[in-house]
Amino acid sequence: MYTKNRFMYTAGLIICLIALLLPNGSALAFETGFHSQMTSETLPFIRPLVMNDINDEHSFLDLDFINNAQDPNNHFDDCHFSGSATRINDRLEDARIDADPTAFNSGDLADQWGQALHPIEDFYAHSTWVESFWNAPAIPIIDNGLGFWDQLEPYSVHHGRMLVEGENETPFGPSSYLTPIGWFTDVYTGNTPPPDVPANTTLPGVVSGSWGPDDNCPDNVTRHHDDLNKDTPDKGLYVDAYLVAYEQVRHEWCRLLHISNDQYGLDGPAALLGLWVSPNGVPHPEGTPCAAPETPGPVEVVASVDKIEVVHDLDSNASGELNFVSLIFTSNFRQSARSEVAHSLSIDDGALYPMITPRPNFRRRCDCVFNNLRRSRCPCRHGMMMEHQMASSKTQRTSMRATNLWMA
Asked: DSSP assignment, residue 314?
């Protein structure tokens, strides 16, 4: 059993309508072993075209030898813990920019997030994090926050483990020292450690495999990448590394929703939940802060759309070919439901589209209160979104209005 955090709080309810235009056919992608398999299995609710874009980045970082494969910050190699954390946060910031609901760029967002997921997965395969918990009942994920990643500073302590980074073999002065014990590393803190580190204490240390010219591990505890990595099933502790990385990647989906919400409000995660999730997908991974509650709430909400006005159909020469997605979700991202029109609709600018009868309804029991109103009008919160997705997976967005969206 792996360490998981559960957040319990009362949620509001958000209803929105999204229109998207998907290209015909399937995009080509390189499915590269450990990373692509893990990402696809961990996030099965993501649309296949989007997942292909995400998995492309594993190949980009592993196979582009000159620019990417040799960069330790892309792989948590050579004890580059702080540099890799900075790289992850840089990619998350770029992903959040591309997730802007007023200019949603699905292709670039998938690229940036895929480049963040790659080193996140590599942390568990390329470091001795898993080994350091050999006698513990569970292996926790290193970062369980919902904002950007911790900076993972050299010799910082996480879940009782110290990240060893830097060439100095006496990191806290002459009374401190590092001891290699087989595949393990002990850090003795000595008399003068930083204020947040206990003095004269031995802590389990974590290093990562060295193989390049930018090695930043102390020489006496250096392990070569070929001996330490757990990238493939023939390597020892592969299953343990896979399972804890699996939990971390599921958590990263919740993090993406939250950092989008922090920047754009609920419009941000609405775009992700509507445009990235497959029609029958369940974007609430178990054991994460956005996991579905064990029992539904006391109130059942049924939402339907009566009419949509298309402000711009994104086609200058003809009617736009649009697919519509209806979405309802709670503000803690633990419950959602969606309904998608099964065929494209040819619509011109300014057209009013009356929904077919019976209206496409979608319902969810929620932990929310509606002031004892039996029926209240609930317009979308900028949730009327239209996406035009080109063959390159780049997208454009425009505005759309809906009338008579009701919650009963």
From this structure: S
The SS3 call for residue 406 is strand
C-alpha 362/C-alpha 336 separation (Å) is 10
The amino acid present at 288, given as its one-letter code, is T
pLDDT tens digits along 38-47: 888 999 999 9
Residue 122: closest CA among 198, 33, 195, 52:
33
In the predicted model, is pLDDT for residue 30 greater than 70?
A: no
Q: What is d(CA 90, CA 127) in angstroms, rounded to the nearest whole number?
A: 21
- pTM for this structure? 0.80
Residue by residue, DSSP assigns 78-93 as: TT-HHHHHHHHHHHHH
The residue ranges of every structural domain in the chain are 282-407
Q: How far is 366 from 190, CA to CA, in rounded Å?
A: 54
The CB density around residue 68, as the number of other CB atoms within 10 Å, is 18
State how far Cα 394 lies from the chain centre. Answer: 19
User: E-strand spans in 136-238?
Assistant: 157-158, 161-163, 177-181, 184-188, 202-206
**Closest C-alpha among 72, 73, 87, 58 to residue 149:** 87
Do 368 and 337 contact (CB within 8 A), yes or no? no
**CB-CB contact of 205 with 164 (8 Å):** yes
Bridge partners, 158 (sequence order): 161
Q: What are the pLDDT digits (tens) for 129-146?
A: 999 999 899 999 999 999
| DSSP sequence for 227-252 | HH---STTSTTHHHHHHHHHHHHHHH
Q: How many CB atoms lie within 10 A of CB 22?
A: 14
The per-residue pLDDT for range 193-232, each reduced to its tens digit, is 999 999 999 999 999 988 878 899 999 999 888 888 888 8
